[in-house]
Specification:
This protein is an alpha/beta fold. It is built from ten helices and ten strands. A hairpin with a 6-residue loop joins β7 and β8. α1 crosses α2.
């Protein structure tokens, strides 16, 4: 994939701000959107960022997790975030950015293996069992074969879903998992929960390590496809892990979009306004992402360089991406 000149310019500014002027005084937050099955934009951005970190530091062992204090992701964005922040058992990340992207690329067909169901055998869904097997293989510790849990990450991790039991968002958090086994879940199940898009997968049920907390999950992207605001709120209120943070002035945020799952050109509406479930899900995702970004843009208006959002306008047939960064000056 080739990145457009605008995207490269955005990352040039990012590198200058975060790599050259690293003073360690601000808390760095990485957010990756859900949406789509390929994560083209996020994949290219993460590989490019880790390559630049290694080039600037002169350390080939440097990882993205070394330069961020917390990660949050929804859907396939959560999968990438978890792969980059999961602890291999030595205190180091389980995957490099390139290894994570390669894993997703190589297993994409298996993860999204189509099946046909429904009364008329026309509705296409995806095999949950196939997805389960791939995710469990990804988050199994290589030294002893142990399934990793939320506690087994190098840095704090947040993953949202929507819980049908409570009819409310549910955010999986390493901070909560560290405090109580009632909030510690196997990592592969957490990613499976946030990936259960209603138009693609059936709701996914998971239970905590001690069996006291259960969740019937569907895709968190329905309520926070762009999960940046949830992460900002978590950091501002989590005084145990982020005691030095008093407001957004203490944060540096990189928010990466995965491209719109729908657009005015691709969403097919009938004259009476009716459309498919998949199209409605896409509209919700896009609306949430755009609204959250505008709100955060306003929150960082006094420090516009501390909030960087990379998002596509569209994906061309050659999968080229255009970057967009919203900033409010003054």
């Amino acid at each position: 994939m080739e990145l457009s000149q605008m995207t490269l310019e955005i990352f040039s500014k990012l590198e200058q701000k975060w790599l050259y002027q690293c003073d360690g005084k601000k808390t760095r937050l990485l957010s990756i959107d859900g949406g789509g099955t390929t994560a083209i934009v996020a994949a290219a951005a993460l590989v490019h960022l880790e390559d630049q970190i290694q080039a600037r530091t002169g350390d080939s062992a440097a990882r993205i997790a070394d330069f961020f204090d917390i990660a949050v992701g929804t859907g396939i964005g959560a999968l990438l975030a978890a792969m980059l922040f999961a602890d291999a058992g030595s205190g180091r990340p389980l995957f490099t950015a390139r290894e994570a992207v390669d894993f997703v690329t190589e297993n994409q067909r298996e993860m999204f293996r189509a099946t046909r169901g429904g009364a008329f055998r026309r509705k296409i869904r995806y095999s949950g069992k196939s997805m389960d097997a791939v995710l469990r293989a990804a988050f199994r510790r290589r030294s002893d074969g142990k399934d990793l849990t939320l506690k087994d990450t190098c840095k704090p991790l947040l993953v949202p879903c929507f819980d049908l039991n409570s009819s409310a968002p549910f955010v999986f958090s390493r901070a909560d998992a560290a405090e109580s086994p009632s909030f510690d879940f196997e990592l592969w199940k957490v990613i499976r929960a946030t990936s259960a898009t209603p138009s693609m997968f059936k709701p996914f049920r998971l239970t905590s390590s001690d069996g006291k907390t259960s969740c019937l999950a569907v895709d968190g992207g329905l309520v926070m496809n762009n999960p940046t605001a949830a992460a900002v709120t978590h950091v501002l209120h989590n005084k145990r892990d982020f005691s030095s943070v008093t407001g957004v002035d203490d944060l540096l945020v990189l928010s990466i979009g995965n491209g719109h799952s729908s657009s005015p050109q691709t969403t097919k509406l009938r004259r009476d306004g009716d459309c498919s479930t998949a199209a409605l899900v896409g509209i919700v995702r896009d609306g949430v992402s755009e609204t959250i970004d505008q709100l955060l843009g306003n929150a960082f208006c006094w420090n516009p360089n501390d909030y960087v959002r990379v998002q596509t306008f569209r994906l061309t047939p050659r999968f080229q991406a255009r970057g967009r960064c919203w900033r409010r000056e003054g």
